[in-house]
Amino acid sequence: MIISQYAYFALSSNRVSAAEITARLGIEPDEIVVRGSRLASPVRPASHRWKITCRKPGMTVDEQINRIVDRLFGHAERIGELAVELDNIDGAPGASMLQVVRVFEHPDGEDEDLTSPVEGLQKLPGQHQLLGWHIDARVLEFLRLTRAELDVDEYGYG
Questions:
Q1: What pTM was computed for the model?
Q2: What is the DSSP letter of 107?
Q3: What separation in angstroms does the CA of 88 have from each of 13, 18, 94, 121, 145?
């Protein structure tokens, strides 16, 4: 099996731009999305998005998430306050999101490593080093403080 995966934290709004979110937080994003930059009707993307990402290969999902949380944890309360404000401006919840995206059998993904870390033991196929992940108490606290939802998307390629 081949796996490609990444994680990001995003603040989204239909009305407040990523540039304004950056100005309000004082934190430069890794990526931005501009509402309606691809299609005017129907509007796509549907919202502006300010993103902190981790796309580093070879890391498990929990390692990628921890990289993001390490960068933002000191700002979590301020992010949460802004998320509430964005929800109020847009009239719906969901401004704050921790997103995990995994694509199985993606040609640019990582192959399963069948070498065993313990000499003399054989690693069986189907135990891909990127399968399985967990959320620890610190990440849960970050999600609470930032009022973030957790969304996990998993796709098969082709």
A1: 0.90
A2: T
A3: 10, 17, 10, 56, 17
